[in-house]
Specification:
This protein is of the alpha+beta class. It has 2 domains: 23-35 and 86-168, PH-domain like (Roll); 39-83. Helices cover 37% and strands 25% of the residues. The protein is built from 5 helices and 7 strands. The protein has helices at residues 2-9, 41-60, 64-82, 144-151, 164-175; strands spanning 25-32, 87-93, 96-99, 102-105, 109-117, 120-127, 134-139. The strands form 2 sheets. A 4-stranded antiparallel β-sheet has the order 1-2-3-4, covered by helices on one side. Strands 5-6-7 form a 3-stranded antiparallel β-sheet, with no helix packed on it. A hairpin with a 2-residue loop joins strand 2 and strand 3 (96-99). The longest helix is centred in the first third of the chain and has 20 residues, at 41-60. The radius of gyration is 26 Å and the shape is elongated.
């Protein structure tokens, strides 16, 4: 009887269970899948004229496969710049970065940097993976500070792109513009 009175007075206290491994979204945004800028007629006329001149020189040097490769690259660029990209949901969590359905954990990301690509700003993550070596996500310029504040706590920030190809592309674009800059 005394036992029943003692147990009746004690009411179970609800215990809140907190999962320490729970994934928390730190920042989330929706953006296009890739950098995109529609090109005008002047750009394509200039690009084709340069391709024809280079192709004539290469044909005299009997480099037919190189001419075909250059034509293929120009066609690929045309296809990518004429078809607008779809939208994707990106997010940064305490466990890593999500690019749509793809997840990259913090232990496979080694560095990050911001880059102006075409008419958009991107945040680029260098990975330790064989493929992809880099993940580029389109962001809004006003969100750059928030993203930097979150990511710099986990991986180092580079001031500019580390790759030789990016530097070479920028050098050529500055010296050989194919369209008017506004």
């Amino acid at each position: 009887m005394l036992y029943d009175i003692f147990m009746a007075e004690k009411k179970p206290i609800p215990v809140e269970v907190v999962d320490l491994n729970e994934e928390k979204v730190l920042f989330e945004w929706t953006a296009v899948e890739r950098a995109y800028q529609k090109r005008n007629k002047d750009f394509w006329v200039t690009a084709i004229a340069i391709l024809v001149l280079v192709s004539v020189i290469l044909i005299f040097l009997k480099e037919f496969f190189l001419v075909m490769a250059l034509v293929s690259v120009l066609f690929l660029y045309y296809a990518l710049s004429s078809v607008p990209p779809g939208e994707v949901d990106n997010k940064i969590t305490n466990r890593g970065v999500y690019f749509g359905e793809l997840h990259y954990s913090w232990d496979v990301l080694e560095k990050f940097w911001f880059k102006k690509s075409l008419s958009t700003t991107t945040v680029n993550f260098g990975t330790l993976l064989k493929f992809p070596r880099m993940v580029a996500m389109v962001i809004d310029e006003k969100d750059e500070g928030k993203i930097k504040e979150i990511v710099v706590k986990r991986i180092p920030l580079l001031e500019n792109s580390p790759t030789f190809v990016d530097k070479l592309t920028k050098w050529f674009a500055d010296r050989l513009p194919l369209e008017d800059r506004k």
